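Sequence in, structure out.
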Amino acid sequence: MPVKPYEKLLVTGTSGYVGGRLVPRLLEHGYPLRVISRRPIQLEGRPWKDQVEVVQGDVYKPETLFGVFEGVKTAYYMIPRIHQYPNGQSQDVAAARHFSRNASRAGVKRVIYLGSLADPCGQLPKHLRSRHQLGDALRESNISVTEFRAAPIVGSGSTTFEFIRYLTERIPVIFLPSWGRSRIQPIAIRNVLEYLVAALENDQSLNQIIEIGGTDLHPFSEMMQIYAQIRGLKRFIINLPSKMPRVASYWTHLTTPLPNHIALRLINGLCNDVLVQNDQASKMFPEIQLIGYDQAVAEALRKLDAGEVETSWSDSLYSGRRFTPSSVFHSEEGMVYEHREVYIDAQPEEVFNVVAQVGGEHGWFFMNWAWRLRGIIDRIGGGVGLQRGRRTPGKLRVGDAVDFWRVEAIDPDRLIRLRAEMKVPGNAWLQFEISPVAEHQIHVRQTAIFAPKGLSGTLYWFALYPIHKIIFSGMIRKIAERARTQTRRRENAADELAT
């Protein structure tokens, strides 16, 4: 039976790329939503957060799922991460099994799952085999499962799009291994979301595995050339005879924001053709008008230029460091604090807006060459580097990547705290506190915080202290200068209006 508009839906994976975009689409259709998150603080700043019910839970820990499914008949399983137990059993598959069993006991009737398109008869790489096994695990309970297997997704912030964008933008002559000749049927993120929503009212999709792709079929090298044409770039692609997935992943790691393990999964998935094998989707969902690859690229670029990137591949990708609550700043011993303060004649929102612009294309306001050098060193060492930038140039929310930092906390016009994700022997934060002290006067406190790990951590901090002293002092001065400039512009504009 079709889902009624008043029936509550459960959505997982809302801090991820597709899940974070699915929520507002479901809200537009009038569905009440409950979202599950391991760390609800990651959802702060999402424009839809106050329109949904947020519950804390972790599909990897079944004991946390008690009560999550109450009153829910349909759930979306959108969790994208892939881990491995030491014995080789897929942790993703185990998590799906936990989810399905708990959902079945609670009376959930249907799960909609987004998987990955690949030929099950071919030599599947581990991550794609795991994605198919995950769908099988969801079907083990007496729940109807609709599994969409999607071709590579093209949209602002998607891994496939960012992979193509950065390689094509940065490298005029591209040496492309043989997987560049694999035929791909990419699908626009817009169409993926349309399928996920339309399934709610389509009984034909119950207990079905549905392959979805776009209208076009291109060799991957041709997808890069189409991107170059849209951008007005001349690019030369030289085809190599072997696949070299691991070498290509390291090269991608150094030249794009994608870390090595993400690049390797993407490249392994491209080592064979990725094509829809039947017309089941078009027959089942004739109302969905698929768009071509060139239109999907143009739409993604428009959103990037307008700063309208809803979600990015890096949103849910932490570097593996354990998330620590903010109490760490007060309760743990052995912490190193480095404070700098300045008083600015400005409004709190003006100072906050300046601080919220750090990183990405705006840089770090002072000695950007030193930040770039640190990013290069981190990238060579296997870290995230500076290349992933930020989701949008001027807006921040909890969970956003900011170069090699992650936004850990935001209190509008009061506080921004970033947690380091570069490779360091310990844990590091950079915090900005903004508070009014008098009319039109703001106190800004910048704190660099480091929790060293072992002797190497202590030596690391003191070795870098001289350069930190210069960089962070210059940075807070530039913040003050930019805030004062904004204030003068506002005052001048007000004077012009008054006259």
